Amino acid sequence: MESRKLKIRDLTLRDGQQSLFATRLSQAEIDKLLPYYENAGFYIMEVWGGAVPDSVMRYLDESPWNRLRTISKAMKGKSLLSALSRGRNLFGYVPYPDSVLEGFYKEAIANGLNVMRIFDALNDIDNVRESIRLINQLGGIADGAVCYTVDPKTEPAQKTGFFAKLFGKKAEEPKKIFTDEYFVEKAREMERLGAKIITLKDMAGLVSPLRAASIISKLKAAVKVPVDFHTHCTPGYGLASSVMAIINGVDILDTNIWWFGGGSAAPAIELVYLFAKKLGVEIEADMKAVGEIRKHLRGARESLKDFDLAPMPRDFDPLTDKLPAEIEAQLDRAVAAAKASDEETLLAACHAIEQYFGFPKPNEIVKHAEVPGGMYSNMVAQLKQLGASDLLDDAMRLIPMVRRDAGLVPLVTPTSQIVGSQAVTVALNRKKGNPDYTNPSNQFISLVKGEYGKTPVPVDPAFREQITGSPVEKPYDVSSYKKPENPVVAEFGGVKLAANREEELLLELLPSVAKNFLRKRRQEEYEASKPKDETAKAETKAVDNNAPITGPTLKAPMGGRIISVSVAPGDKVAKGKTLLVYEAMKMENDVMADREGTVKRVFVKPDDVVGTDAVLIEFE
Question: What is the dihedral of CA 196, 197, 201, 207, to 10 degrees?
Fold first, then answer.
């Protein structure tokens, strides 16, 4: 009898590095790996989308389009290439009109993309409908992803009013929102819309082994297209739940290669291979070629040491290294427990195996706060960069409250970024003795307003009024979209900022990040075109920061990067006027005048990085 086969989607070059290393893997390191990837035989390689388009511009000063083209050329069509799209939010943090979606999908497919995994952070089917249609129309493969999340463990602190009606008066009998049937029905709807693959997307790693068995088996019975399981190991379920998914008939499993696996990422393919052998399942990947990638991937991880949150696991080759008898016994114990639906024993055995190899222990903080690993690693990296690492524990504890207030949204980009950023600002509010939500980000306001779509449960109208000024839900209005200007850059020869359609799309998707990235490209071109002996003579008048401050000041609510300044010395401003916009935790925040007055000095300019409580503006 022919053995059952399991297809693999390798996440190493996108989700693996995003979850473990805050998406800092450079093109130079990827180029070293690509010759070994060509013959690895992965069914799908996830290489683009998610945080990649933003991060490669923001942190690495690289072109997202060049990354996709380079990988596609190297792979020569031997594995399908996939990207992650946030549906209506695409690869950004706000809703976009259909014209932007179509432009990006068309260019992506033209540059070698095959599969677009499409999800909505709210599981709002209306937000993925157009993306599925466009990908199919343009010749790609639409992969519909249902975001897994869990109901609150406890009743909200306030047991009266809106939430009491929603969850019931008794803490022990809350109304269940995220049942198996909830996820299965979302999958059915996506298949009806034209999805050719259905993914259960467990971005926080919260699917326990028994829950994985239950949902995967029901998805297999409910849809005709292949079912993919995507999870993370952060809370300690990932490996065991992947074993249960295999036993219950999953068609495709998402994995990473050894040095980029485990911890806050998906399980390592090498461990999955060991279990598949025990189960009589054939992994559809060339494990010898995987071993070649693994050898070179270690150097890539070492290059990311500044962002590495976990100890290196011990080296291991499943094709040549003999396992100790006690680990072989744990593998057998885990398989027997899985077949018997003994979750406790299965988890204990998997944890023992992971501990032997040196993978991180289950993260209890993440498990309790119910957050995805990528969100956690990004919060750590961002807070470290802002010099506010002491806020991490407080912010993590606040995430469940912020999530509940925002309508029980699943935590996946962009909602994970929005909720995470807001939890940090609430922690900062409390540290300063200010009320919660004193400084809501623009995106949090939009989420609560309803512009991101329908939340799984309604937002309390009183809370919506507190945050947005109105209790009425207001969906995103496509007609209000304003295409960002493609200005002429006079100082670099009078050329347009975006030189072609690809760059125009970057400007539409991520205006503030793309603006800085593209200015550097135009500057490089301008400098290269000038005679070598010509020197720049531009002078910038600096603010005298040493002069004593004698007037009232406006300070930064939290550390971040200045995006724009809309006032100058001498301007008269009214209370509530937006004076500047800054970015913190990838969220844009308006800073408004807290008084009527005349601007005396502006201490910052675009691209300046400021710390919490830095003086931004002095008034007369």
Answer: 140
For the beta carbon of residue 316, count every other beta carbon within 10 angstroms: 18
Crossing angle (nearest 10°) for helices 269-279 and 287-302: 150
Would you kindly state where each structural domain of the chain is located, as residue ranges?
4-322, 367-478, 488-529, 553-619
Cα gap 554→614, rounded to integer Å = 9
Question: Is residue 156 over pLDDT 70?
Answer: no
Task: Tell me how far apart the 2 most distant CA atoms of the chain are, in Å.
Answer: 85
pLDDT of residue 173: 55
Phi and psi, residue 418, nearest 5°:
-65, -50
Q: Which helix (H) or strand (E) holds 464?
A: helix 461-468
User: Which residue type, as a one-letter code, is found at position 392?
Assistant: L
Task: Yes or no: say if 483 and 506 are a contact pair by the CB < 8 Å rule.
Answer: no
CA 297 vs CA 44, 100, 305, 520: distances in Å: 18, 35, 13, 30
CA 422, CA 431: separation in Å to the nearest integer? 14
Q: What is the mean pLDDT of residues 335-357?
A: 98
* Identity at 381, one-letter amino acid code: A
Q: Which of 585, 587, 578 is nearest to 616 (CA)?
A: 578
3-state secondary structure at position 440: coil
- Secondary structure of 283-324 in HEC code, one letter for each residue: EECCHHHHHHHHHHHHHHHHCCHHHCCCCCCCCCCCCCCCCC
Helices (H), 208-286: 209-222, 238-247, 269-279
User: Three-state DSSP class for 162?
Assistant: helix
**pLDDT tens per residue across span 96-152:** 889 999 999 999 999 999 999 999 999 999 999 999 999 999 999 999 999 999 887
Rounded CA gap, 201 and 228, in Å? 8
φ, ψ of residue 117 to 5 degrees: the values are: -85, 120
State the pLDDT confidence band at 162, using cuts at 50, 70 and 90. very low
**Residue-level length of the chain:** 620
Whether a cis peptide bond, with omega within 30° of 0, leads into 414 is yes
Write down the pLDDT at residue 383.
77
What are the CB-based long-range contacts (under 8 Å, 24+) for 520-525?
Answer: 520/61, 522/489, 522/492, 522/493, 522/495, 522/497, 523/492, 525/492, 525/493, 525/495
CATH of domain 553-619: 2.40.50.100
Instruction: Give residue for tokens 């792979």.
Output: 75
* DSSP for 586-606, written as a single string: TEEEEEE-SS-EEEEEE---T
Edge to edge, what strands does the sheet with 609-610 contain? Answer: 587-592, 578-584, 560-565, 609-610
Q: Is residue 64 pLDDT above 50, yes or no?
A: yes
Q: Which CATH architecture has domain 4-322?
A: Alpha-Beta Barrel (3.20)
Is the distance from CB of 415 to CB of 447 less than 8 angstroms? yes
Angle at 442 between CA 438 and CA 446, to 5 degrees: 110
The yes-or-no verdict on residue 167 having pLDDT over 60 is no
Q: How confident is the model at residue 418 (pLDDT cuts 50, 70, 90)?
A: confident
Asked if residue 87 lies in contact with residue 546, where contact means CB atoms within 8 angstroms, the answer is no
Q: Distance between CA 223 and CA 30 in Å, rounded?
A: 36
CATH topology of domain 367-478: Cyclin A; domain 1 (1.10.472)
CA 144 – CA 116 distance, rounded (Å): 8
Domains 367-478 and 553-619 share a fold: no
